Amino acid sequence: MPDKVTKTDEEWRGQLSDLAYKVTRHHATERAFSHAEFPKGPATFACTCCGAPLFDAEAKFDSGCGWPSFTAPVSDKVVEEQADDSWFMRRTEVHCAACDAHLGHVFPDGPGPTGLRYCINGVALDHKPKP
């Protein structure tokens, strides 16, 4: 993994939309079903903060939860996890390993082959179509 991407709060604020800034830098959550659907087809979903490739379209599925869902990241090295005890429950937060951007949460109720559901804020992702 390359060195961590670090920027000042002012730099992040200048680079990101208000919502992307609140979600990725301050652990907010976009409203369910509020993000436009990503186009179908071969693609990579990258971190909106640093551009690191995080998820492949082949791992995307419709969980019905209102946020983009994936069964696995492109590698176990691109995301990191930590306990999140907010909202009176225990969840597992997922963040970008390269820049620490908050992405969403991972739950053990996804389909095969992993059985995981990476529930990710759409505003934290950039859709990069593959040629």
Tell me the strand percentage band: 25-35%
Mean pLDDT across the residues is 93
Distance between the termini: 25 Å
Please outline the major beta sheet: 6 strands, antiparallel
In short:
This protein is an alpha+beta fold.
Task: Record the SSE blueprint.
Layout: H1 9-15, H2 18-26, E1 43-47, E2 53-56, E3 60-61, E4 69-70, E5 79-84, E6 91-96, E7 102-107, E8 117-120, E9 125-129
Antiparallel strand pairs: 1-2, 1-9, 3-4, 4-8, 5-6, 6-7, 7-8
List the defining traits of the structure above.
2 helices; 9 strands; single chain; 6-stranded antiparallel sheet; 3-stranded antiparallel sheet; about 30% strand; about 130 residues; alpha+beta; globular
Overview of the structural elements:
The radius of gyration is 14 Å and the shape is globular. A six-stranded antiparallel β-sheet has the order 3-4-8-7-6-5. The protein is α+β, with helices and mostly antiparallel strands. It contains two helices and nine strands; from the N terminus they run ααβββββββββ.
